[in-house]
Design brief:
Layout (H helix, E strand, L loop, with lengths): L7 E6 L18 H7 L3 E7 L5 H10 L12 H6 L4 H7 L3 E6 L2 H4 L9 E4 L16 H19 L5 E7 L10 H5 L19 E3 L6 H10 L11 E2 L2 H30 L8 E5 L11 E2 L8 H4 E7 L7 E7 L1 H14 L17 H14 L23 E4 L8 E4 L3 E6 L2 E2 L5 E2 L3 E6 L15 H7 L10
Parallel strand pairs: 1-5, 1-8, 2-11, 3-4, 3-5, 6-7
Antiparallel strand pairs: 2-10, 6-9, 8-10, 12-13, 13-14, 14-17, 15-16
């Protein structure tokens, strides 16, 4: 095996929910493309993001920085983290580094500027869904990723590539064909699927709640974006119609992924490549009254996401129940770049900076620092795997170190803390409200048990106040 040809392709799909994929247990949405890929990869069952904020996610995966450290004045580690990034490490290792995205916030992230090439894809200006899958934005994104891989192989055959693709997914445009949406209408009594191209956003009114009560609750909640008035949805058929449309998007995603993988796997470099597929945030579909991402909810539908990695030469599926987070992705890829380093000759410098001897030393220094925050996921399938080296718990924050709304996840528990701001009392915070759910049985956070598990709650609460996780 030629170590100089170990390529890396990472795809992040915004809004990809773990509960709608066959390999993760769904039986009513067919995802043969994803399931086939999963059968050749390592599947992580307990992957949680640190924060639903996009920038916080990329601070973790590009710099290995836990968001609980962001905006923490006393953190020396964070100042070091600012000096080195994942694309820098791959540049230094001799890779051609490319970022492809349709999200300008990702394209202009400070770490993104270290890629050798940045390709910002336009989101199509459409007023209605497309007629066939091949015309969809989903399909176009995967096609452009594949075109970039082929182009690189044609131009510089002997140099490995590191391609990071971020797709807005369900967060920007719902242009999936109507036929794909209608496929999830089970019988004649079901409502017609949501047929608009605009991303749905609503707050569901419960039968025992008045609309005025719901509006007051949502507007007072710190999870609502500033100056935003929620769209109140009191017709549960509309909720089902949106879910049907979302499933139509899953079928489009799966077909696009399947065709991408067929082309990718037909090339000789597939076996020598690391391929990673994940999401940066789930798309709530009414599990806790919320539809869409206009406000944060910090429940599992937003935080518990799919993570699949095909390691070089992996031929069979491996499944891990270890707790995993975005910092682990950083450490895994940083370690991969270090072990597969080749000559730097012929590689173009990053767009806005160069990696000189001083910055490479910083990179090695930071890599050592980050080992306290993340794990190399390749170890989960190694013979030397020691489960004690993985996380005992994960700390999730709304945005950064200043966030008071937080979650702690262990293998047995999901603890959610929310603190509202009292607008009638000089914006003073109210007492924390706790919700506790049993894992893995209650993976959808349905059966709240805090009042019945006081001892467990008492043990978990102190973990919420830590600036970084274990």
């Amino acid at each position: 095996m030629n170590h100089s040809k170990r390529n890396v392709v990472c795809l992040v799909i915004n809004g990809l929910n773990i509960g709608f994929l066959g390999a993760y247990g769904n039986s009513w949405v067919q995802t043969p493309g994803f399931d086939l890929l999963a059968s050749q990869s390592t599947l992580f069952d307990q992957y949680y993001i640190h924060s639903p904020h996009l920038i916080s996610f990329y601070e973790a995966v590009f710099r290995g920085t836990h968001p609980a450290v962001l905006n923490s004045i006393s953190s020396n580690e964070y100042s070091e983290a600012q000096k080195c990034s994942l694309p820098q490490l791959f540049n230094f290792a001799g890779y051609r580094t490319v970022l492809i995205t349709d999200d300008s916030e990702v394209a202009f992230h400070s770490a993104s500027t270290e890629f050798s090439d940045i390709k910002l894809i336009d989101i199509p200006d459409r007023s209605s869904p497309v007629d066939i899958v091949e015309e969809s934005h989903f399909y176009s994104f995967f096609a452009q990723i594949m075109d970039q891989i082929i182009e690189i192989q044609t131009e510089i055959e002997d140099i490995p590539f590191f391609i990071w693709g971020h797709f807005s997914g369900w967060s920007q445009i719902w242009d999936f064909p109507l036929d794909n949406r209608l496929a999830f209408v089970d019988d004649e009594d079901d409502p017609d699927p949501y047929s608009d191209i605009i991303v749905p956003s609503a707050w569901i009114s419960l039968p025992n709640k008045k609309q005025t009560d719901i509006k007051s609750f949502v507007q007072d909640s710190s999870f609502l974006s500033p100056n935003q008035s929620p769209n109140i949805l009191d017709d549960l058929d509309k909720k089902q119609s949106i879910q049907e449309a979302y499933c139509g998007g899953i079928s489009v995603f799966d077909k696009a992924l399947d065709e991408f993988c067929q082309v990718f796997q037909s090339n000789a470099f597939w076996n020598d490549s690391l391929f990673l597929l994940t999401s940066n945030r789930g798309f709530p579909l009414g599990e806790h009254q919320q539809i869409g991402n206009d406000f944060l909810n910090l429940y599992s539908e937003e935080l518990h996401l799919p993570l699949l990695i095909h390691f070089p030469d992996q031929e069979e599926c491996f499944r891990s129940s270890a707790l995993v987070d975005p910092c682990d992705i950083f450490v895994t890829l940083a370690s991969f770049s270090e072990k597969n380093q080749i000559s730097n000759a012929g590689i173009r410098e990053p767009v806005h900076s160069s990696l000189d001897d001083h910055s490479s030393q910083l990179g090695q220094q930071y890599f050592q620092i980050d080992q306290q925050w993340g794990n190399n996921l390749l170890n989960v399938i190694s013979e030397t795997n020691d489960s004690r080296a993985f996380h005992e718990y994960l700390l999730i924050v709304e945005k950064d170190a200043l966030s008071q709304n937080r979650v702690v996840v262990t293998n047995e528990w999901f603890l959610r803390q929310t603190i509202k701001i009292n607008l009638t009392n000089d914006n003073q915070p109210e007492r924390p409200h706790y919700e506790l759910f049993v894992l893995p049985d209650d993976r959808w956070n349905v059966n709240e048990v805090a009042d019945r598990c006081e001892k467990e709650l008492e043990k978990l609460i102190p973990l919420l106040t830590l600036s970084v996780k274990s």
